Here is the input.
Amino acid sequence: MSVVSAQGLSLTYPGNIEALKSVDLSIEAGEFVSFIGPSGCGKTTLLRVVADLEQPTGGTVLVTGQAPEEARQARAYGYVFQQPGLLPWRTVEGNIFLPLALMGQNRAEAAGRIADVLKMVELDGFGTKFPWQLSGGMQQRASIARALAFDAELLLMDEPFGALDEIVRDRLNEQLLELWRATRKTVLFVTHSIPEAVFLSTKIAVMSPRPGRISKIIDNPLPADRPLGVRETTAFLDVAAEVRAALREGMDE
Amino acid sequence: MMRWLSQSFVPVVTIVVALVAIWYAVAIPMNSARTYMMAKDDVEIAFSELVADTWSQKKPQLPLPHQIVAEVKKQATFSWIWKEKRRGYKRSLIYHTWVTLSSTLLGFALGLGLGVSLSLAIVYSRVMDFSVMPWVITSQTIPIIAIAPMIIVLMAPLGFTGLMPKGVISMYLSYFPIVIGMTKGLRSSEPILEDQMKTWSATAFQTFWLLRLPSALPFLFPAMKIGLAAALVGAVVAELPSGARAGLGARLLVFSYRSETIPMWANLIAAAILAGLLVVSFSLLERTLNRRLGFRNAGEASS
Here is the structure.
């Protein structure tokens, strides 16, 4: 059973702006799918539809076999936004605890889980710090830890590293890949960086604008075990070239 | 301590000394009219005599700091607690300050309640959003001095006299900044955080309690400080038309009828000290809360 599936999914905003037009998609459990495309191609909108933050105007979407609203209420996914979105008046631990508290856990029950996810994103020892005491990259890691806290099988990430510098970004990409290999969660990852998409994904969905749609889905032949150095190999560069060509094609149409 | 001395103490003292010097200088020409009036026509007044007289008149145009301080010292007694019970007017400045403070606090509490409830209604109901705000703003365009007697007259038949109408008048001034600040504050949470709460299926109340209310606090506190000062103005004004015999406002009226400028100024100073104390105590509360909430601008400790 696919974790996320869409048939003929469309979303037209008032004023006849077609953010998404007849998108077909099927994502299996354990896949890491990147959505890449120029701005205005609807990649964020697609992710928000899956998360039930936007309502489609046509077609069907199923998230873990249910309607998006049911999936959201069942807490079937964790969502990482472009900005860390940490509450400034809560410590890192307090922020990670927040979704768990909303699910009715108390602090003592959650303590173990909070420590686990902090370790996963290599933030152990920073739990009692406030967000402003952390660097941008650490804040984003805390945000990822929070999305992991309630152990949903699906992780939706909307350009989580877009605002970070390249060195931090590389490091976080490596960590994310390790995390994905360890947990085998299904990840939907929005990005506008070709190297990031190729480095992380098992599948790359290339999107194009006006109307927003998936113009090509590229299977990534790279092995699951990828050190950062893989980015200098010809196999990597071939995939990147293919993505770039697909992006250009989508723009020209 | 040294830092405090160099950074705050010296500049503050310099300014105060300068102001007092200007005050004494300005008092000479301002109070001189009475000196010349009282003097015999053909007598030349030496400058030293002029200074001595203008700085020590009984009913000067501009009372001098030493006169006001002496008056405050004389009147700020607690003797009204065991004496003066039978007299028509109590003289103690502390007693009158307390009377004004009590209606200030009542008015502020009412204003806070009304302001916060109105802003909740505005933020959570579209109808209220469109209908209430214009009235809130209109309410502040009517001078309080015009409305105050009406409130007293209208509330008397309902059995409310004394403290309550004064509190209501005070509320009328103090709820306004609170509505404005709280409404702005409740709407200040970032859309991304609202979305985040939605992805966790938070209920409306959870979103309010965990996100919107804490986001509103940095807006609420300055609004409360303005509201507090406004409540004090309201309390003083409320004492003018109510026939009140006690309170700083009532005393101001009495002294102004008698042109007793020194006690008037003593009352003004008492009101100013009261306002200062109220606002400072609120700032301390705000700082404590901000520290507990871990906000960055929670004072020097984190800078």
